[in-house]
Amino acid sequence: MMMHSAPVARKTAEAVARFSEADWLEAARLTIVMKGLHASGWPALAVAGVLTALSYRYAPTAALFGVLALTVVVTVLRHYFVRGYLQTLRDGHIDQQLAYLRRRRWFLPLNAVNWGVWPLVFHGHLPPESEVVCWMLTAGVGGVAIAWMSAHMYVTRMFLILFVSTVAISVGVTFIVWPEHLTQRWDAWIPVMLAAYWLMMARIARLLNDLYGQSIDLSYHNARLIHSLREQKNVAEEALRFKDRFLAGAAHDLKQPVNALGIYAEWLSNEPELVHELGPKILQSTQAINALFDSLFDLVKLDAGQFDVDLKPIPVPDLLSDLEVQFGPIAGQKDLELRLRAVPVSVRSDPILLRRVLGNLVANAIRYTVRGGVLLAARQRGDHVLFEVWDTGIGIPEHEQEQVFNEFYKIKTGGTEEGFGLGLAIVRRLSERLDYPVSMRSRPGRGTVFKIRVPVEPSDIKS
Questions:
Q1: What's the CA gap between 100 and 85, in Å, rounded?
Q2: Cβ neighbours for 80, distance < 8 A, ≥ 6 positions apart
Q3: What is the largest CA-CA distance in the chain?
Q4: What's the CA angle centered on 178, arms 177 and 183, to 5 degrees?
């Protein structure tokens, strides 16, 4: 039992996550109905056998074999109906379960009619003692059906209405076809007994429905709790994996510039006359270390939610000019051309965060470009400015285009050892913080373009 409980709980929790509460509860109620139908199959067949045995010597042959044939057909249909549903239940797809029941909803009314026609066989034809036993068995079958159908009130009402109505019609038919039955005294009490039976079964159904409802609601909330705990467990495990990647990536990326800095410092202490040659290299290693720490601090701030957005008007030409001053020398060191194309409008954004986003895109473009250049362009598109960063670099294979936004991810083919794999991760998270959509297009060996849409300052929107 323990071996099967875990998969069942997992499927139930997954169903809670994927489907609406209404669908889940509907499927749970109907599942109880179907399991009751499955469990009562053999007992119902046994009751039909007893009714047949008691009626065989006395009942009209046509009525007996007609009703018996209907019971056999319903029994076969019940078998295939229930077996098909249990298969969909094992698959755990609530939408398929509900669709299956909608396609075969005609069976439940047929089952009610099947038991309601049995009075055609035994009413008025059997000795009084045998007929009383047949009535008790028929009423018992209806009561048992109501007990497991009560999980779903609509199904219960439908069954009770059809069952009692069919019994009443069957009794009425016996009065018409065999009028001598009218002479029996207790026939006058049949409407009263049917009404009392109706009221009693309706009352029992309501009470059982409340009990089923409490159990199903508890099961639903337990399943939601299991799903929530599983999600929290996954988040915690992912946080641990990220911490491991974070520490490993930071240690690896710090090691190279720190080692280089140590080598240059030792070299300079032994040969001071090389200061003009080693000074820029020491500065470059220091800048690399500072860049890594800036990126790490950005990630920490993002995780802690410490980036407050302060929206201000930012002139696009000034913004691009600042980025040219910052990255122009870096591009020049690689013999790359950094070109800018501005538009004479202002955008409304956070100056620090927007510079960080565009700066990371430009730095990434320069890092992965060996020859050619980088273009930072701004174009007005209605109430937005579209910033584009083009490069003629190595490009990004299609299967890696989503992964490049993950922390510490570097392109595996034709990449560079420079950088820390954090720039695009910070771009995505900052753009989400600012609610700016970021898109990219790339072809391996041909270059990449990143695009980001930023709202125009309202006063600069052209009417």
A1: 7
A2: none
A3: 132
A4: 140
- Contacts of residue 297, defined as CB under 8 A and 6 or more positions apart, other chains included, come to none
Residue 434 has pLDDT above 70, yes or no: yes
Q: Which amino acid is at 177?
A: V
pLDDT tens-digit map of 67-97: 999 999 998 998 888 888 888 887 767 888 8
Beta strands at 384-391 and 438-443: parallel, antiparallel or unpaired: unpaired
Instruction: Please enumerate in sequence order all residues whose Cβ is within 8 A of that of 174, keeping only pairs 6 or more positions apart, or say none.
Output: 119, 120, 123, 124, 181
pLDDT (tens digit per residue) in 214-255:
888 888 888 788 878 888 888 777 767 766 665 555 565 565
Q: What burial letters (b/e) apply to 2-15, b meaning 16+ CB within 10 Å? A: eeeeeeeeebbbeb
What does the block give as tokens for 129? 């003692």
Task: Write down the H helix ranges in 271-376.
Answer: 275-304, 316-333, 351-367
Under DSSP, is residue 381 helix (H, G, I), strand (E, B) or coil? strand
pLDDT at 325: 77
195, 200, 202, 205 alpha-carbon torsion, rounded to 10°: -160
SS3 state of residue 124: coil
401 φ/ψ angles, rounded to the nearest 5 degrees: -65, -25
pLDDT in tens, 370-411: 888 899 999 988 889 999 999 988 887 776 767 666 666 666
3-state secondary structure of 443: strand
